[in-house]
Amino acid sequence: MRVMGVDPGLTRCGLGVVDGSTGRPLHMAAVGVLRTPAEDETAARLVLIERGIEEWLDTYRPDAVAVERVFSQHNIRTVMGTAQASAVAMLCAARRGLPVALHTPSEVKAAVTGSGRADKAQVGAMVTRLLRLDAPPRPADAADALALAICHIWRAPAHDRLSRARAAAYPGSGAPRPKGTIRS
């Protein structure tokens, strides 16, 4: 499976492509960061991100796209830019019919390091080790994008099994569901 991870951001949008499957060695196909000028209007910056993501999708042809789920931060302006860049990544993937998975930062950290509270240096070190790289990808946005792809490769099979089990247990869209059940 080839997964493109996207660490969304309006100024720096990390991108990483990883090949692999559960229980097999992972291989980095590409890593980089899309940058947009802070002085440009938001709409123009989003167009630059869209063009960059489209180019990566054309070049690396992933089977799925994993995007970091936007979480609440204290700076609402930062959250808005991150959410907008995230939406662009999801839109680009959806246009191509690619599955999109959203993973929280703590989920990614736990998958890659074993701790949902790992810091950026720990994530970078584990990405370096798992992908057998000479040095951690820089900046941290690049390492985070690779970590997202790794997380998805490792978690996708379990997620698929859960989805199939739910579909078998509750066939049809009109089937009653227990209260509190999450539909994926």
Automatic annotation (TrEMBL):
This is Crossover junction endodeoxyribonuclease RuvC. Its cofactor is Mg(2+). Mg(2+) 1 binds at D7, D141. The lineage of its organism: Bacteria, Bacillati, Actinomycetota, Actinomycetes, Kitasatosporales. Belongs to the RuvC family. It comes from Streptomyces johnsoniae. Binds 2 Mg(2+) ion per subunit. The RuvA-RuvB-RuvC complex processes Holliday junction (HJ) DNA during genetic recombination and DNA repair. Endonuclease that resolves HJ intermediates. Cleaves cruciform DNA by making single-stranded nicks across the HJ at symmetrical positions within the homologous arms, yielding a 5'-phosphate and a 3'-hydroxyl group; requires a central core of homology in the junction. The consensus cleavage sequence is 5'-(A/T)TT(C/G)-3'. Cleavage occurs on the 3'-side of the TT dinucleotide at the point of strand exchange. NCBIfam families: ruvC (TIGR00228). Its EC number is 3.1.21.10. It catalyses: Endonucleolytic cleavage at a junction such as a reciprocal single-stranded crossover between two homologous DNA duplexes (Holliday junction). Keywords: Cytoplasm, DNA damage, DNA recombination, DNA repair, DNA-binding, Endonuclease, Hydrolase, Magnesium, Metal-binding, Nuclease. Pfam families: RuvC. The keyword Ribonucleoprotein does not apply. Homodimer which binds Holliday junction (HJ) DNA. The HJ becomes 2-fold symmetrical on binding to RuvC with unstacked arms; it has a different conformation from HJ DNA in complex with RuvA. In the full resolvosome a probable DNA-RuvA(4)-RuvB(12)-RuvC(2) complex forms which resolves the HJ.
